[in-house]
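Write out the 3D structure for:
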Amino acid sequence: MPKFDTSSSHGFVRIACVTPKVHLANPQANLAEHVQLAKRADAAGADLVVFPELSLTGYSLDDLLTQSTVLDAARRALMDLMAKTASLRSAIVAGLPLRVGDAVYNTAAVVQGGLCLGLVPKIFLPNYREYYEKRYFASGHGLSATIKLGDVGVAVSPDLIFAADGFEAFTFGVEICEDVWSPDTPSTKLALGGATMIVNLSASPVVVGKSRARKALCAAASERLMCAYAYSAAGPGESTTDLAWDGQSLIYELGGLLAESERFTSDTLTLADVDADRIVQDRLRNGTFADARRFQGAKEMTRISFDYRPHDLTDFHRHVPRFPYVPADKHRLDEDCYEAFNIQVHGLMQRLESTGTQHVVIGISGGLDSTHALIVACKAFDRLGIPRENIHGYTMPGFGTTLGSKTDALKLMKALGISGEMLDIRPAAKRMLMDIGHPYGEGKPVYDINFENVQAGLRTDFLFRLAGEKKGFVVGTGDLSELALGWSTYGVGDHMSHYNVNCGAPKTLIQHLIRWAATKEFDARTGRILKSVLEREISPELVPVGADGALQKTEDKVGPYELQDFTLYYITRFGLKPSKVAYLAYQAWKDKDAGEWPQDYPDHKKRSYTLAEIKHWMEVFLWRFFTTSQFKRSAVPNGPKLISGGALSPRGDWRAPSDATAKIWLDELRANVPDQV
């Protein structure tokens, strides 16, 4: 079995952006800084170490950059760097001015295993405001040369891609500072040519607001090019004759910030574990990326292989959110809830307008999903100017309905001003059970799946018939998590309706949508009832409460929704292997005190999970998702998509055969995930 608890076993590449103390025009002093930082990075498990622009000499040398003494010393420092880091695993990218033929180029040298693998020249040379680079350097555009370093010929070209032997996803290209500010960045061609990571050596001086601009550029580049983007800027030691330097380091992946340095410091390492496999998976699933490569006639790149030896450290330099559908940041959560709620409201408004319908019917249980569907319906009716009395809510107590949920359902309907009624389904359910020969019809306490489904089916049957009476349609309540786990009876219950406002909302998000709406969209009285709903245990309430007072709990059957939503996200959004999802889940959930919780998450629900628990509930997820539930998803009603890559409608993000099996996913999980580490 591969080693489970190292990031290198799961397709991650550890990048280190470093900020050395600069010694102007003193390559040997800079070399010493490089060697000690490279050794620190290598000991920390870095696979790729990125230094700033012209790091072996300093950037702010001005005319000294064309002095033969400086150029010769820089070349010697490069040779020494190769020799002094030969025993390290890391690939190292450092900057220096280099004479090639009759010109001087601003270059990045890629060094590993005692060799210089290649030299990448800067293409775009700023020559405005404080910049005078064309005074010293030639552009590397179109350059294709070979120089001798010792007895070895080394390629000098902007069209180099460096590829790790034995790790297909670990490929990187290099650009330098101004290159990323160009409308036509070298990184575009590098990414289309196969680089999953772009590193940028920069000596960009800092002014107020510059750090925000850099972050915006790096984030956009990593998202647009579907890659990781590592940016390392020069820091203290550069000349402050007229400028200042902050040593900002940034590492982005697919638009998201993984790590950033403390600015205005030196002798620092900024580490991040980049998910190279995820980048490859995302590109495979995005036809636009392949089309761009084909349409633009991506230039053939020169691939240079290098030795890759994975580290065996068990630390992890990457924040894994426990709730991928729910941001921990208060302001982003507020923004996401605003968008999701309004998508649902406007989806229902459009369906009402397009059908000319003035009435809807909805079943209100007092639970999360029906509560949320009801408040969405209320806002849709308000915005269309239709009276809320045209929303016909029915709470339909069955054999397991508790007083608390029934009371909340009745209070909520009254507070919202809809037409609310109670319809007891127990007589009809008992009659049906008796007619089909079920033991409960003869008074025997047999609470099997058919006992439950008769109640769910009758509720749906009543709702559809009531919709016919009211000349309206049924608003569905089933959520995305239930669709994934098949936690619904086919054709009835949470599965079927005329239009389902909740089908794009995972269970973990719905709780926050209700909390958000309670304070943003409704009065204080309604808000108190909504918060009461949030405090109740998630239950279908189809089985009577036991003699010991035990309530039927959904999560006892399908698993904790917080874990199952985590798995749902990574399986459907990125197509990751179950063992990798388990590794990420373990990193997120192994310690309840080690990370952020979403705003207002209840303290009594803050928990952690062992690897054995994660593995067990993932087996449940995989079996339910791949084997038992697709035929239900193939027949779901219309409803709005809320989350990128997160719809399970066969008309949206997820298409799969109803007759598939979960075997290969279960086999992969069991073969590669131990019960403990």
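Residues 560 and 617 are 8 Å apart (CA to CA).
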